[in-house]
Known about the structure:
Number of strands: 13
Mean pLDDT: 92
Structural class: mainly beta
Largest sheet: 7 strands, antiparallel
Strand order of the largest sheet: 1-2-5-6-11-12-13
Strand content: 35-45%
Number of helices: 1
Order of helices and strands: EEEEEHEEEEEEEE
Amino acid sequence: YHSIQxxxxxxxxxxxxxxxxYTLSKALxxxxxxxxxNRLDLANGRAGFDRTHRLISNFDYQLxxxxxxxxxxxGLWKGWSAAGIVIVQSGLPMTLTDPNxxxxxxxxxxxxxxxxxxxxxxxxxxxxxxxxxLGQWIDSSAICAAPVLGSDGATGYxxxxxxxxxxxxxxxxxFSIGKRSRVGGLREDxxxxxxxxxxxxxxxxxxxNPGTTLGTASFGVITQTSVAPRLIQFxxxxxx
Length: 240
């Protein structure tokens, strides 16, 4: 694992605090062996959890209290706070497999796809934004049939590596607003804390990786989301 990490923190008048952390990284392993089981060097590639870019920003803001308000009106406007977190990250890597490959070896190992001559891994990505690519994330024209090695048509392994194309990235925002009020009771300084939390506050769709098995109906098709739609949660606590 190699990375460059940077963090920026700030605080303004004890009311607003914020932080942003960015990581540029690459994680490699050889835990999954495809194709020739005797060639562990071919299994070297990006880890399944590798995300090249990851940015996390958060803030906490204690809303200012009006000096002119008093009585119940002053109590209504005091003690409010807002907080939020934004996560922006690149997609997870995918390994594309071909169930028709490796027949001549009795399919002792899972075969990767076979890249066509004169093509590169960058040719696998279809053009356009995420929503335009939902039905065809992978350009199958860059993929050829598994090589035929046996006289009976038995096939050999593919020539592609592992983790050769990324899935969709994510941009997710969570937000909350709350209020704390001194109410007494069990203790003189006891407080009642009310909070409203919005998960996926912008209600934006975050998509999971498409199918990666060549020849199946789901190959290159995104059918699931990785984050739930907007969820709103209410909380009430008595602090003493």
